[in-house]
Please model this.
Amino acid sequence: MAISLTESAATRVKTFLAARGSGIGLRLGVRKTGCSGFAYVINYADAPDPGDAVFVDRGVQVFVDAGSLKLLDGTIVDFVKEGLNEAFRFLNPNVKGECGCGESFSV
Model:
């Protein structure tokens, strides 16, 4: 099982954590919602939670809860800027379909 980051995503996390002045990494998960079934949850981690899987890529710790891990296995997290918009993007090999707005996915 693995989660990886592009250089752009790793740089964004490191920059934000430094500006924030606290935190130990990135927390990823999924929740049931949306028109396709699941949505990504992303936050900065201040401490590991019991049962977290921990991945380290490009110097960034990535924490994933056990329930989300099977849906996120193999995911590459990218950070993109398009004009005035910027966001994390997920290249998840487990996704079978996405809603039209891109906010939710199915497996």
